[in-house]
Amino acid sequence: MSQTSNPESLEGLAVPSEYFPIQRSASPTPLLSLNRFPQKQENKPSHTITHGENSVLSLACSDRYIFTGSQGPHIQIWNLITFQQEAVLKGHLGGVLCLTLSNDQKMLFSSSGDCTVRVWDVDTLKCLYVIQVCDVGDLFSVVYCDELDTVYIGCQNTSILRFDLSTKENHQTHNFPYSCNYSKFFDNIPPTTNACEIISSVEEEEIDAKICAEQENVCRYEVHDCMIYMNSHDGYVYSLLLGENKDGRILLSGSGDGDVKVWSITKNSMELLKVLKGTDAGILTLAIQDELLFCGAQGGDIKIYDLETYHHIRSLMAHDDDVLALAAGDNCLFSGSADGTIKRWNKTFEILNTYKDHTGIILSLTLSPNKSLLISGANDQLIKFWDINLTDDNCQEAIIPETSDIMLYALKKWILLRTVSGKPKYLEECFRGAKFLKNVFIQLGAESELIPIATGQNPLVFGKFNGISDFKQQHKQLNILVYGHYDVIDADKTKWFTNPFEMTGVTDNKGPMIAAICAVSELQQEKKLKANVSFLIEGEEENGSIGFDKTVEKFKNLIGEVDVILLSNSYWLDDVTPCLTYGLRGVILATIEISSEESDLHSGMQGGAVSQPLNDMIQVLAKLVSEDNYVLIPGFYNNVRPITSYEEQLYERILELNPSKSSETKEKLMSKWRYPSFTIHKIDVSGPKNVTIIPRKAEASVSMRIVPDQDIDDIVKSFKEFVKEIFSELRTKNNLRIEINNKADWWLGDPKNQYFKAAEQVIKQEWGVKPLYIREGGSIPAIKLLERNFNAVAIHLPMGQSTDQAHLNNERIRLKNLQAGKRIFKNLISKLSEIKKEK
After folding, report:
1. What confidence tens digit (pLDDT) does each residue in 288-309 have?
2. Residue limits of the Peptidase M20 dimerisation domain (predicted)?
């Protein structure tokens, strides 16, 4: 609650640059990862094969063989039992960029930089036929759909090719695709030159391959224009993958443009279904596991999408460099990167193991059919075999207890950032805190961006989880906005039992916000998020929410439609009984300054001869309130809303069920919560701090707490006029100045509306007791403003206990309350989603 105060590169990759033309950029999530497992170093590989002098670009594995493709045009075949080379498949004229097997393992498909896809018989190890196309550049990826008997090819020129093998005889050709990218070095070697001394092994293979290609007797089939889907992406099509979901058979394509496209495929067609929009980080590799799509990207991230809803549910900060290969096992995912490491992830996106034995960039990964071996290829010209037949129980030993819950792990990291608002020395750390929160949103599956306020002020963090669209719904999706803040007040470490920035903000308001974010993320991952849930988390709440109103108005279109506002920025009345807050007082912060045109004077020299600003100040302040704290400003109480019988009952229940308030009367609670007040906070004076000085200036900080239905502008006007009237009666020579430093309106919800009743039900379900309906004397400037701007209703759900020490030394929050708070948010959002909203 507000204290409200006065204001890439791919160097070292031994692959032609055209294969990976897009230079890596910085990760879009550059801060701390939410991965909760330590990156345990795994044992050495069980076996290693030297591939010659070429980088291992592609891998495929059958029950009997391992097939490897490289920069050279040949495909090498290795026995999976003995690891000895069995054969070499010759025919391509360029590097073998992708290998894939048919489901029955009878056919091997290889795509190359020579503009061809070759289809091989796995039993005879002979080429069955060649599919060729001109003027599309390198063929980066190839997949084969057994059911449709169709090959799909991803190309350098941004196109996707579709070739139906059942009709291949209609497209036979006797031409060679001479526009392909095999080396033409040999065409220009002078007759007197010893070619063997100057050509590389790759070039030797190209000569051999060219001879074999000219001598072989295989059918060639040409891809016609009608089979080419031009401009399928705005970048190279690096990866293709087949899958199935509610839309039937689908083809997924990943591109250097950062997008993943979902295509509906049938025997005779391919139609675009969905674009999974990405960032500038290109998508280099794809994998599917349990209806989840994993996308390896430039910069080191793995983006995760749910293929049923097409929602982005998570981003993993997986590696320090581009993710070039993915392989999906039964219960885990493997990722290989340009940083030289391979990582193993479990089904909840946690790192189980890190494999590091290659000395170069990991370019390819595959799994043996029985999933017992992981096979990796790199630009160190090595193929390595890793025994992955490990039980999850063994891996679970690596869990660190304090980080075994993602909510607690993220909260711990966030608290360490000293996001103190209103103090310039913390400005950079506040920005880091905002970036960390944005990173959390993205990794947990939300869209997120920072919203600037003004120079020298902390940005807002906006995050949005999109609900699942159900066309059978009879009403529109509810739009929920969760409001909170990430800034904290400063702490004096000499008065804390521990380092204050291991706990400051844990209850006010970082803990409740992390709990709410994790609650929505869980709903999304469980495919139960039926509402659109946005978060607006500010960094200036403890500093009076400076600039919040204008910024919200400016970015109203980004925030979108809002039906319900949720917040959790206050506390229970005790440590036992849960509460629902339905009212907050507003506040007006003001400074009264009385000053003399004289300088500071000595009381022994000038006392009694001059008008003294401090004396005047005391007389002015004394006439603003009576001895019994009644505010004397004219009309101050005129519009205070009378108490209703329903509200009387709420107070009576508080006193009945809350033992800690037994010493308080109903009238005292009302004085703190529902009646206005006037407070003198401090008086500052100029000059040296000794008792003989007549200060030339006195400055008083005062506040007025206002309630329904007082008008904040009318109160400000009456206050100024009354202070001026009192001052004019003093017949002093001093000067008066009144400044309104900040103001926030009161807020009052309706405990009887359907949203509060939904909150009451889920709180009772969690704690086993109906919550107390309470009001509070403090202020949160944003609530009324958000209600007014979006024509929405707000619900305030206190999460912490009365002893949480918010704004005080040794702040804390009970773990039980934090975990229960997450469940309450989760259940409330589900329940609110059931409330009908007219279309």
Report:
1. 998 899 999 999 999 999 888 8
2. 583-727
